[in-house]
Design goal:
The structure holds two protein chains of two kinds. Chain A is an alpha+beta fold. Chain A is about 30% helix and about 20% strand. Helices cover about 75% and strands about 0% of the residues of chain B. Classes of the chains: A alpha+beta, B mainly alpha.
């Protein structure tokens, strides 16, 4: 991605160091590379010993992979965070209102803001979620909103994840590690804590039970130890002190869900599931699923058990729905969006399509229902032939594509083999919605460890960093109130 | 707590105990072999019903081959590496119900064992056995000093003591009868000192024997110590006592009793009031075999009663 000049979160300042990073810069200057290297290998040992791993569990040689952790924290100033927090709260309120409406009266369609076919013909639309009438009107209890930064005051939402977003265990474990590795630096900066996440999560889960029990029974439903995120499932259940269950630990009797225990069946009120909709209940969705619980959706519809996140949420975080989120905010909340979308051109609009076709070498084109980089064109890094081949698909199926400019994601100093160097990052804060909305300050910072790479996914050489949100007494950013920049929305 | 959790903890207890017992047994066997230049490789394989499988791979039945077969051979279901791996898999599924101390020490054992297995050609078998013995003691210590004494603890305990009782029975059965083929309580002429001390070393009780009896090693006393002595942590009586205690605690927690409680109580009472002379009179071998059958039955009954199957 040569030629892209990115905003660097530490050094893009007139005097060479942005205020929130002053202590970090000093720490880096004072710490010899050998010490950093020693710290890095210490971390790797720690993660391996704790079994904080992902991927191929059960490899016969005892090898499990750890996600690389970068020992240089990413810092977010207090005022920057306040801005993000306001924007995230607003966005998730709108998404919840939208999902209630999408599976209710669909007023937003009647008002002509979103065409009804956008919902009803969407592959992610789940008719069984119609009129669920969930406690508090909450459908996305846990949202992971991916945010990228491109300038001092320019943040964009890249993606909303409201199905089963993962990664929060790394937020918590990374913090534990950083506090051990750099205690003085940590203490000097007034970093806001993240450790209360699991408490807030449990409170959120309990607050959406259908029953009036003071202590509803909440369980975490996992696909099992072979799932790549199993560590996180076990970690969260452990931290919350709730049972980690697989489908076979549960059964449905007379419309109620129970778990099998040595003392007999015990009722379950709320299921925090980390299994996709399609595998949740073989009676309702894929009949060949062995992971789920037969009869679960029946119990949900008869309001005996709540399922978190709700079923059918995919209709809200789908790439084709993404473009409507700013309109949702205006429609449901009567407010202007605080956080902006990345300007997105849609293949199903003739003017947009012409623009896309004229600017293919500069754009990132994504398939609406694709994920994980499938069906995607990154213009600036593609050959002429690849672009022309993609052009043909686009002309044939314009409805299936959207296009966005190639963003110069901000960079942060990162400890790589060559020493400390800037690498591109993104941010996934986790937004909890129950009776109220709670956001633990920070989130998962993913970093592209390869020089120049914009791909932060762990499957493609990405790592993580601890994200330090500074408290009100920490060093501030530019002291200028952050404002949303007006974006040309197509 | 889930039934599947109870099951995982029960099996974690069994597999860990199996790994530890095997390490102790191999160490004792190796020590004796050094001192008396006798090898008993087939005895040990026979103890676990693996004599044929062992002979098929190693017809000469040398001790180093036995140790290899019993430690690192992944085809052998009773090998130490398989037991550690199974214990670790059970623990991994139940990290929630274990403390960090227990999990980390068990995971640490697995990582060490797996690393040794990868350098297979240059394995120091003595060091391997030593590592397993040390680490399993550390895991037990971590469990003892950090785990909540709740239902999970009791299921872990059931697995641990069932397996340990079974192990002591196997050692006595095979090793005792090799030294005393007629099962007599008195030593024959020319006492095989190394043989008898080896039996005691298998359960870490050689010094204990001397402290308790202040006498020469005699078959009858060895049997008495290993079967009836309640305060010896690896004696059959001790194991059945602990088993019964855990069953009682679970009965209290759950507010009901079942067939498994009756069986555990009966087994415990029998050992508690048993006399070594009566056991020899009726025949040691029959006594041990009957005990093993009844332990198997108890194990199945526990599975039924707590929905572990």
């Amino acid at each position: 991605m040569a030629g892209i000049k990115a905003f660097d979160e530490m050094t893009s300042a007139p005097d060479g160091v942005r205020a929130p990073y002053r202590d970090v810069a000093q720490w880096l200057a004072d710490t010899p590379a050998a010490t950093l290297e020693a710290k890095r290998s210490e971390v790797d040992q720690f993660y391996r010993r704790q079994g904080i791993t992902f991927g191929a569990y059960g490899a016969t040689d005892g090898h499990e992979t750890t996600i690389p952790f970068d020992i240089i924290p990413r810092v977010i100033a207090h005022d920057e965070w306040q801005y993000l927090e306001r924007g995230l709260t607003q966005r998730v309120r709108a998404l919840n209102a939208f999902l209630t409406d999408a599976y209710g009266e669909r007023q937003i369609c009647r008002a002509g803001v979103i065409p009804e076919r956008q919902l009803l013909l969407n592959a992610e639309f789940v008719p069984l979620a119609q009129d669920l009438d969930l406690p508090g009107g909450v459908h996305c209890h846990i949202a992971g909103i991916d945010i990228v930064r491109v300038g001092e005051r320019d943040f964009f939402v890249l993606e909303d994840n409201v199905r089963t977003p993962s990664g929060v265990s790394y937020v918590l474990e990374n913090r534990e590690v950083m506090m051990r590795l750099a205690p003085e630096l940590f203490a000097s900066m007034g970093v806001l804590p993240v450790a209360n996440y699991t408490e807030e999560l449990l409170a959120t889960l309990r607050s959406v039970s259908f029953s009036d029990d003071a202590e509803p029974n909440v369980v975490l439903l996992t696909p099992g130890p072979y799932n790549s995120a199993y560590f996180e499932h076990a970690f969260l259940a452990d931290e919350m002190g709730i049972e980690l269950v697989e489908g076979t630990d549960l059964f449905v009797d007379e419309g109620r869900v129970y778990m099998r225990t040595p003392r007999g069946p015990q009722r379950v009120d709320v299921i925090y599931r980390r299994i996709d909709d399609a595998f949740l209940d073989p009676l309702a969705f894929r009949p060949d699923s062995l992971l789920g619980l037969p009869g679960l959706i029946g119990a949900l519809r008869s309001r005996r058990v709540n399922v978190v996140n709700a079923i059918g949420n995919g209709v809200a975080d789908d790439k084709s729905t993404y473009v409507y989120v700013p309109d949702m905010i205006r429609f449901y909340l009567g407010e202007e969006p605080i956080l902006q979308n990345v300007p997105t051109h849609r293949g199903d609009r003739p003017d947009d399509l012409k623009f896309i076709l004229d600017h293919l070498p500069e754009l990132v084109v994504k398939e609406v229902h694709g994920s994980g980089g499938k069906g995607m064109l990154v213009g600036p890094t593609s050959s002429k032939a690849e672009i022309e081949e993609f052009r043909a698909h686009l002309v044939a199926h314009p409805y299936d594509y959207i296009a966005q400019p190639t963003l110069a994601l901000s960079t942060c100093p990162t400890f790589v083999n060559q020493g400390v160097a800037p690498r591109h990052v993104d941010l996934r804060p986790f937004v909890l919605s129950g009776k109220e909305i709670t956001i633990v300050p920070g989130g998962l910072t993913r970093v592209a460890l390869k020089d120049g790479s914009l791909v932060v996914n762990s499957s493609q050489g990405g790592g993580t960093k601890d994200t330090w949100v500074l408290g009100p007494n920490g060093q501030h950013g530019q002291q200028v109130p952050l404002q949303s920049q007006s974006q040309s929305q197509s | 707590m889930l039934s599947s959790t109870a099951k995982n903890l029960y099996w974690m207890g069994r597999y860990l105990q199996r790994a530890e017992n095997m390490a102790r047994l191999l160490e004792a066997t190796q020590r004796t072999a050094l001192q008396s230049s006798k090898t008993e490789a087939f005895d040990v394989a026979e103890m676990y019903g693996l004599a044929d499988a062992f002979e098929a791979i190693h017809p000469d039945g040398e001790l180093p081959q036995l140790i290899d077969f019993m430690t690192l051979n992944v085809e052998n279901p009773s090998s130490v590496i398989n037991s550690v791996r199974a214990a670790r898999d059970n623990a991994r599924a139940e990290r929630n119900n274990l403390t960090t101390d227990v999990w980390e020490s068990l995971n640490g054992l697995w990582l060490e064992v797996a690393a040794i297995a990868r350098r297979r050609r240059s394995v120091d078998r003595g060091a391997f056995v030593e590592t397993v013995k040390k680490q399993t003691v550390m895991i037990a210590g971590a469990a003892q000093s950090t785990l909540l004494r709740d239902e999970a603890w009791n299921f872990l305990s059931l697995g641990t003591y069932l397996e340990r009782a079974d192990n002591t029975i196997r050692i006595l059965d095979v090793k005792y009868h090799r030294l005393q083929p007629d099962g007599a309580p008195q030593a024959r002429d020319g006492v095989d000192y190394y043989g008898w001390s080896e039996i005691l070393t298998c359960i870490g009780a050689l010094r204990t024997y001397r402290r308790v009896y202040r006498a020469r090693i005699e078959p009858r006393k060895v049997a008495e110590l290993m079967i009836l002595r309640r305060d010896l942590p690896r004696s059959i009586h001790h194991c059945l006592w602990q088993l019964d205690l855990s069953m009682r605690e679970l009965a209290e927690l759950y507010g009901n009793r079942g067939e498994a409680d009756r069986q555990a109580g009966a087994l415990h009472a029998e050992l508690r009031y048993g006399r070594i002379d009566d056991i020899f009179e009726a025949g040691l071998r029959d006594f041990l075999e009957d005990l093993r059958d009844r332990l198997d039955e108890l194990s199945s009954e526990i599975g039924r009663q707590f929905l572990l199957d």
